[in-house]
Specification:
binds magnesium ion; 8 helices; alpha/beta; globular; 4-stranded antiparallel β-sheet; binds adenosine-5'-triphosphate; Rossmann fold; 10 strands
Length: 269
């Protein structure tokens, strides 16, 4: 098993404090977060009264069976989806209390997204896609940082290409560059390696890990992949809309053991 660089300095493995909205050590926090879809007999509670704190400057993975609410939780934390009840903070700002316009601005300024399906605009080049969120926010990318991101992700020879002219791995690296370029406070990634081969996936995971260790970024990643989860500092396990477990400094083997327990539960119910 390859070793990943990790920043464990001062970590005690205790649950983050929940009494303060935000707080210096929490980049994001949710309290009694519930999200339901549908009405009456089609009603589904995707996320059920979840309390969670996302530690600043750390890499958090979210795992759990299909349908356990991982994407829904992430979309709510990122302000991409409304909540049915409960409260969410990004830093000190309660995003569940924001008007749409303010929420859009906060997302633009403070949050980066990486999706399984890349979500690049097909009629823009790679470089135009990378800088688009910053252009919309009337912010100018730091050229040195942009160059560093492009070099790290090895997409320098693809910057004038459109998404249809790139492989999936290249498209995802462009999507990562787009998320990194504004140096957001929080990066959310939903199965970022789901459509990549193991080599391209390892590159993306290495970049996420380094963004935490070297740039003090905060990354939250939903994944099904045991190897991907082992890059994180902490894994939060979701089952049926609830947080059922968490693990600090995970290894591939320990995550596998924990996921097997979900399979056993599923088989007996
Ligand atoms: N837009 C929606 N409308 C209705 N139900 C939804 C919607 N989005 C999610 N759900 C339901 O909410 C539950 C949680 O879905 P979610 O997509 O969050 O799961 P997940 O853990 O991300 O699953 P996967 O691993 O398959 O991506 C599921 O039962 C799903 O069918
Ligand atoms: Mg999902």
């Amino acid at each position: 098993m390859r070793k990943h660089r990790r920043n464990d300095g001062g970590h005690t493995g205790t649950t983050p404090p929940r009494d303060l909205p935000g707080g210096p050590e929490l980049a994001s926090r949710a309290s009694a977060l519930t999200k339901t879809f549908g009405v009456d007999d089609t009603r589904v509670t995707a996320v059920d009264a979840v309390d969670i704190g996302i530690e600043r400057g750390r890499f958090t993975a979210v795992m759990g069976p299909s349908g356990s609410g991982k994407s829904t939780l992430m979309h709510c934390l990122a302000g991409l989806d409304s909540v049915t009840s409960g409260h969410i903070w990004v830093g000190d700002t309660e995003i569940t209390a924001l008007k749409d316009k303010d929420l859009t601005q906060l997302r633009r300024d403070k949050i980066g997204f990486i999706f399984q399906t890349f979500n690049l605009l097909p009629y823009l080049t790679a470089m135009e896609n990378i800088v688009l969120p910053m252009s919309i926010a009337h912010r100018k990318p730091d050229q040195g940082w942009l160059d560093q991101v492009v070099a790290t992700l090895e997409i320098g020879d693809r910057l004038r290409h459109r998404p249809s002219q790139m492989s999936g791995g290249q498209q995802q690296r462009v999507a990562c560059a787009r998320a990194f370029v504004g140096r957001p406070e929080l990066i959310f990634a939903d199965e970022p390696t789901g459509n990549l081969d193991s080599h391209a996936g390892a590159e993306v995971l290495g970049v996420l890990r380094r963004s935490v260790d070297e740039l003090r970024q905060t990354v939250v990643m939903v994944t099904h992949d045991l190897v991907a989860a082992s890059y994180a500092d902490r894994v939060v396990f979701l089952g049926d809309g609830h947080i059922v477990d968490e693990m600090h400094t995970p290894t591939h083997e320990r995550v596998l053991e924990r996921m097997k327990r979900f399979d056993a539960t599923t088989r007996t119910t």
